[in-house]
Amino acid sequence: MQPFSYYRAETANDVVSALSGGARILAGGTTLYDLMKLDVEHPERVVDISALDLTEIRMEGETLVLGALARMSDAVEHEILRTEFPALRESLWRAASQQLRNMATLGGNLLQRTRCSYFRHGAPYACNKRQPGSGCAAVEGLNRAHALFGGSDACIAIYPGDFATALMAFDAEIDLLGPSGTRRIPLASLHREPEDNPERETNLEPDEFITAIRVPRSNAARASTYHKIRDRESYAFALVSSAVGLDLDGDIVRDARIALGGVATRPWRAGDAERLLVGRPLTEATAREAGVAAFAGASTTQHNAFKTELGARAVADALMIAKTRI
Ligand SMILES: Cc1cc2nc3c(=O)[nH]c(=O)nc-3n(C[C@H](O)[C@H](O)[C@H](O)COP(=O)(O)OP(=O)(O)OC[C@H]3O[C@@H](n4cnc5c(N)ncnc54)[C@H](O)[C@@H]3O)c2cc1C
Ligand code: SF4
């Protein structure tokens, strides 16, 4: 690990000044230090934001507001998530391990980086994300865990986070603070697809940071689930996952939310599959149709074609679980 200077910010303005001076944010450190030890990240300065008062989880009218420094484990235990946003809660407790969840923050979780092993483990493998212009070893290599949606010739790495996938289904927004004050963006605009510049992963300005996450209360968020399929039942990233929420009028679907994880270069919303359900009864047959529709247009590689059927089943199963929560 290369030497770096450490600064503990006391106020939000301290953070913005440090970022303007080229520092990197340190929150829980479970991703940043990991990547520094692997020699993937080499910040010369880090600004520790953990002293800031951004840990509160509360309702503001009809909107859930989660402070960027709330720990994953605190959100999992929170009553509002348990009763009103079960998919968000499940996405958090099905992620990482209890020790990691005790340390990791929600803001840091959103900005975790891909687990593509060529990216993390470096030479002698080419990786455009780690070293722009060097190529992509995954395209012809071991790409079982790679993306079906949103990839480019330059990069097919998935975005690995569970929480952002769940937020995607429920129209979450993100509060950002920078030198010109606060701005609010849809979570859907936070992460970028790789296109020709896979090293640019978000639409954050270099001197901005996340202060809060906002999620509107809805019937679909209340009758929701996060269904995660992985190689082993705990402490593993998603092979495929689906965040689903439902609102029914009798038997008929009034509102359906479907987002996909483990299969795309950014959190992915399956809008066509949602629209296919609205106005129809939710049955095993229509849930299956929606699952298949969610994976229409998937672009497979040599080793990951199995994810289309696995994903279709995950969506269908998630819909049937959500139906039991109405
Ligand atoms: C072994 C292991 C298994 C894991 N398994 C899973 C899993 O199954 N599912 C899953 O979703 N995640 C998983 N994770 C990822 C884990 O959830 C993240 O490492 C964690 O949430 C990051 O939060 P942090 O506070 O530690 O972030 P940090 O490491 O402090 O920061 C991460 C990144 O975000 C930036 N950052 C942090 N906070 C902010 C902010 N407020 N504004 C702007 N930038 C910020 C940092 O500069 C850094 O680039 C796993 C991690 C490990 C190590
Ligand atoms: S898929 Fe992306 S992260 Fe993985 S090797 Fe290719 S460029 Fe690097």
Automatic annotation (TrEMBL):
Q: Which UniProt keywords apply?
A: FAD, Flavoprotein, Oxidoreductase
Which EC class is this protein assigned? Answer: oxidoreductase
* FAD-binding PCMH-type domain span: 1-220
Query: Which EC number(s) does the record attach to this protein?
Result: 1.17.1.4
- Segments traversing the membrane: none
Domain of life according to the entry: Bacteria
Name of the featured protein: Xanthine dehydrogenase YagS FAD-binding subunit
